[in-house]
Design a protein that fits this description.
Number of strands: 2
Strand content: under 5%
Oligomer: single chain
Number of helices: 5
Radius of gyration: 15 Å
């Protein structure tokens, strides 16, 4: 499972358009495929401000965020979802 929600099989030319799953989340989705819809809703709740706080601004107002910076964006709901589903898998 390489793509989070690419239901059309589209190809992208820029890596920032793609999100690759960490092993823990990948295992959870394989165990319960419906979790992917919860992940999608959680990601949609991340605000522009949340992302801009971790990124940078270049001359002329160009905003950019590198993958390492993106990994610092707070997404507590996703962490809780992973934890809940890890516990469920073990029960």
């Amino acid at each position: 499972m390489q793509q989070l929600r690419n239901t059309f099989g589209d190809k992208v030319s820029y890596s920032y358009l793609m999100l690759y799953l960490k092993d823990t989340l990948k295992e959870i989705i394989l165990y319960n495929p419906n979790v992917i819809f919860q992940v999608w809703e959680i990601l949609k709740d991340i605000t522009v401000n949340d992302i801009e706080e971790e990124g940078r601004v270049y001359g002329g107002g160009l905003k950019k965020i590198e993958p390492k910076e993106l990994s610092k964006v707070h997404c507590d709901k996703l962490a809780v979802l992973c934890l809940e589903n890890e516990i469920e898998k073990k029960e």
